[in-house]
């Protein structure tokens, strides 16, 4: 069975965005891009909420074509064009999208059907609203977090409306010179 891994940048106090959705506090550099790119290159499916999907669609399809495109822009743009996209949305029309599946209702049933198909892990990128929806249905199998050395004090929390205690197992960590720490957790089924 495929696993859904939530991939997020998070503040030390647990927020994934500021009160107005600000993400200008996220620390990212080429070392982190290269590290993330290694794992993403082994993934064939991305999941997004509609807002994050719109942001991705507005940038990644043509990012590699820009004259000043970075190595990361080129590599991620190429990956993005090949990856299957799953979008949680009540407003998008699947017929308009390329290589994408829209889930607008019966989230648990539809996602469990996808998890039972062949393929790699499914990375849930960014998307706090989608993460919260999947959390309520117990559909997330792990967390790939990049903890930024900042306290926001308020904003959009990573974890909201959790129904029950959930044990996690730390798989690995990595500290980056810029102060960001990567944490990989999976559900602890023991």
UniProtKB/TrEMBL annotation:
<dbReference type="Pfam" id="PF01872">
    <property type="entry name" value="RibD_C"/>
</dbReference>
<dbReference type="InterPro" id="IPR002734">
    <property type="entry name" value="RibDG_C"/>
</dbReference>
<dbReference type="InterPro" id="IPR024072">
    <property type="entry name" value="DHFR-like_dom_sf"/>
</dbReference>
<feature type="domain" description="Bacterial bifunctional deaminase-reductase C-terminal">
    <location>
        <begin position="2"/>
        <end position="180"/>
    </location>
</feature>
<protein>
    <submittedName>
        <fullName>Dihydrofolate reductase family protein</fullName>
    </submittedName>
</protein>
<dbReference type="InterPro" id="IPR050765">
    <property type="entry name" value="Riboflavin_Biosynth_HTPR"/>
</dbReference>
